[in-house]
Amino acid sequence: MPKKALLERLDALIWPLAFPADVEALFRSQNVEQQHRLVAFGWLIGVFLYDLFIISDYVRTGAYFHTYVVIRFLLVTPICLIIVWNIWRKSEYYDLMLGLIPTTMVVGLSAALILTEGDYRTHYMFGNLLLMVCGCVIGRPRTQFVAAMVALQVIAYLMVLETTNIIPPESKPVSILFCLSGAVVSILSAYAAEKSMRESFLLHLRVQHLNETLNVQALSDPLTGLANRRCFEQATDRHWADAMAARQPVAIVLLDLDRFKAFNDNYGHSAGDECLKRVAQCVETVRCGTRGLAVRFGGEEILLFLPDTDLVDARRIAETIRRSILDAAIPHPAIGPGVIVSASFGVAAATPESCQIAELVAAADAALYAAKANGRNQVWPQPGASASREANRA
Q: By the 8 A CB rule, do 263 and 272 touch?
């Protein structure tokens, strides 16, 4: 299912509980990142409580006490602590680790029950059911891992029933029903928990997506798709506040479509909007090869903010855009047969430490007026033009 459709349909999460590969990877990474420490601490407490039953072992098991000591402290506890360490380190087998801890505890307890004798074992049998539920609650592993873990625990439980006389034959059916009921409840609980986590994750993605969309809309011009004045102000504020960039040149290119009022008056504003869109595409195509920002500055004016760009490079970029607009060959017969839309450009460059952005824009605006006064459809200042120094003085 495509990501967009997935964001729109939370009810799609029924079975299997899985997202498309890219979304699934993001979900797994976030889920592990947010929970691994809490889960590791939870299982440390679980191991401590498991070992705390050594008190009961000492009181009830008699001659078999040493067997429980060996199984709890020399086998189960070291294995569980190694697994907890891997959970803390966010092992690539994280989900498998979550299921191994309760399974290890169940196998250890089952082995102790098989190897020993005594009526106390009837009470210990229910410890397996407790571990089955704890395995689903503490770590919240994926449902398929819970199913495999529970299956192993049920097998261990049935093996204890089959190989020992802990439960009288007439009580075994009830004991098996208890075990199977615990298994079903554990799997259903794991499924509900995982489904809830995934739905919460999707809701978070949806909110994030909406916020990003709103942010783009707030910082872009709806007609041309270029940045708007607010975006320009934010970008220049950041740039002027950057001490590292203060000594590097920055350029402003300001372009204005030639005789655009005549275009709108003769063909209507809808045609004018289409013309602006095509010009914006020309600007954006060239801009993509720079670190700059293209801004709809107002009406038919478009501004390029070009960090780390001197006057020579800015003029070159402006000339490339000017030729691209001519190559688009947008007809403008209102001012003469065979005439196409063109643009005039004003360019200014300085360093942030030597001027404010308003001064640089004003210099580019003065250069733009000079370009129009000197015949339009050109970049100003031209190389060697006498007005160059004045137009670009910030």
A: yes
